[in-house]
């Protein structure tokens, strides 16, 4: 397979390189370095390639359905690029989603959110368990799933708690509070004075942490 480099100064399309392939039609991708690569067979003319780029260039950079996301209380603008691998990274105020082709963007993004929830919520649970250890001797199993009406649920009979995967959009201090709350429910199932006494002992600033989330719609899931 030979590689031929084309560059253009045409203002309506970005600079690009052409890689000759045997496949039918024209495809394009952006390298992690931001270079636009066109895959085309030897019969494609320069005109047909540039027409293709003009028609499809927006697909390389167009924003997802929602153009921003909040992660751990911080806002990120979403940027989509195509490239040689599927990957999500953050850079200052941007969340960059790189996928091998445009149709994979949403899946790459959703997989990233799912993995982040799994990794971060387990790490925070480990730290919070150290705080509640005098009360709880065995660390509950952490289950994570998307829930529509609560931030966390505890199952003392099964020795586990379920956390809402949507928590990753909120500040870490609030997530710590939710986990602490559910851990204490393992020994104090109701919101009794004994429950709050334990909560105050383990997390004296819990009220401030609740106030980190803004709307009453979010707060109604607190129980
Ligand atoms: Zn509760």
TrEMBL record:
<dbReference type="InterPro" id="IPR053136">
    <property type="entry name" value="UTP_pyrophosphatase-like"/>
</dbReference>
<feature type="domain" description="YgjP-like metallopeptidase">
    <location>
        <begin position="26"/>
        <end position="209"/>
    </location>
</feature>
<dbReference type="Pfam" id="PF01863">
    <property type="entry name" value="YgjP-like"/>
</dbReference>
<dbReference type="InterPro" id="IPR002725">
    <property type="entry name" value="YgjP-like_metallopeptidase"/>
</dbReference>
<protein>
    <submittedName>
        <fullName>DUF45 domain-containing protein</fullName>
    </submittedName>
</protein>
